[in-house]
């Protein structure tokens, strides 16, 4: 596989980053994951904009403009012959000479920019889309700026392991009695013809897929309520689902052992997934 590191396209075995990189030492970096369907990028501009926002919230300069970033994404898709898959992008504050809590001067320390691809044939036809996934709830113990997409992913990773140990697929995190989001996705329930999902704030990541799905839902005359909901309300809902760049819209069929809609994926989630995939493929670049 060919990867991109700081201006160079290299075989993955030759790509190197300093041990003093602040992402390695302090998780001082941000990332994006963009999906590729049919060799094209899904919602590239949404991811590029969120990257700039994450960087600016952390006082990091943007390493390059949108067009150059797009070119690198496309070149990696071409070099690695990606039909369906993901592109991972990471920008860190770079590698000053020493470990120090104080940010290095951006004039003297260059950011580290890394991109690589993951081929995932049939990404849009996963078994999870047909069968749905099972969720457990866990306490949300992450830091308070979840709107910044940092590489500080230890707690979400632990949450995923807690789910696996419990025989489930993923975890929804709960704070002050209400669901924030999934370990790597946004969370939704459906009550009658209304979609309920937590409102945007610093408590959750502002999902690029979330923005697109809510727009398509409203265009299809579905009702959307952006507000907190509890696990109890979710267990009594007609349907539930998650969204992310890699899962698109994926139905949830069980929450803490309680089956939803008889344990099979609901019609609204299925319809939204279809609309999302159709529209996103049409708009892909
Ligand atoms: N919430 C969290 C915590 C995430 O890590 C992710 C994606 O990685 C999402 C939500 C979904 O965001 P997006 O739709 O932009 O992939």
Automatic annotation (TrEMBL):
Enzyme class: transferase
Catalytic activity annotation: L-valine + 2-oxoglutarate = 3-methyl-2-oxobutanoate + L-glutamate; L-leucine + 2-oxoglutarate = 4-methyl-2-oxopentanoate + L-glutamate; L-isoleucine + 2-oxoglutarate = (S)-3-methyl-2-oxopentanoate + L-glutamate
GO MF term (any one): L-leucine-2-oxoglutarate transaminase activity
TM region(s), chain numbering: none
Pfam family of the protein (one): Aminotran_4
GO annotation, cellular component aspect: cytosol
Alphabetically ordered keywords of this record: Amino-acid biosynthesis, Aminotransferase, Branched-chain amino acid biosynthesis, Pyridoxal phosphate, Transferase
An example Gene Ontology biological process: amino acid biosynthetic process
EC number(s) per entry: 2.6.1.42
Cofactors required: pyridoxal 5'-phosphate
Reported function: Acts on leucine, isoleucine and valine.
Protein family membership: Belongs to the class-IV pyridoxal-phosphate-dependent aminotransferase family.
Record-given protein name: Probable branched-chain-amino-acid aminotransferase
Organism: Roseivivax halodurans JCM 10272
Lineage: Bacteria, Pseudomonadati, Pseudomonadota, Alphaproteobacteria, Rhodobacterales
């Amino acid at each position: 596989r060919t990867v991109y590191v700081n201006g160079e396209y290299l075989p993955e075995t030759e790509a190197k980053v300093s041990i003093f990189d602040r992402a390695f030492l302090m998780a001082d970096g941000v990332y994006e994951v963009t999906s590729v369907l049919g060799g094209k990028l899904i919602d590239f501009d949404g991811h590029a904009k969120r990257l700039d926002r994450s960087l600016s919230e952390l006082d990091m300069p943007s390493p390059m403009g949108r067009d150059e970033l797009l070119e690198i994404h496309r070149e990696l898709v071409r070099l690695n012959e990606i039909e369906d898959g993901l592109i991972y992008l990471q920008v860190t504050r770079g590698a000053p000479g020493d470990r120090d809590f104080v940010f290095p001067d951006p004039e003297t320390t260059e950011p580290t920019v890394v991109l690589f691809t993951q081929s995932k044939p049939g990404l849009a036809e996963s078994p999870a889309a047909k069968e749905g996934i099972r969720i457990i709830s866990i306490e949300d113990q992450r830091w308070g700026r979840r709107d910044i997409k940092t590489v500080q992913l230890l707690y979400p990773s632990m949450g995923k392991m807690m789910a696996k140990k419990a025989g489930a697929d993923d975890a929804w995190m709960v704070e002050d009695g209400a669901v924030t989001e999934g370990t790597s996705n946004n969370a939704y329930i459906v009550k009658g013809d209304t979609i309920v999902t937590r409102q945007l704030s610093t408590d959750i990541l502002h999902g690029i897929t979330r923005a697109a799905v809510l727009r398509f839902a409203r265009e299809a005359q579905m009702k959307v309520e952006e507000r907190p909901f509890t696990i109890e309300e979710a267990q009594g809902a007609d349907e539930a689902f998650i969204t992310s760049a890699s899962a698109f819209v994926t139905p949830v069929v069980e929450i803490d052992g309680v089956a939803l809609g008889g344990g099979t994926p609901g019609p609204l989630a299925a319809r939204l997934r279809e609309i999302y995939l159709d529209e996103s493929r049409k708009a892909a670049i």
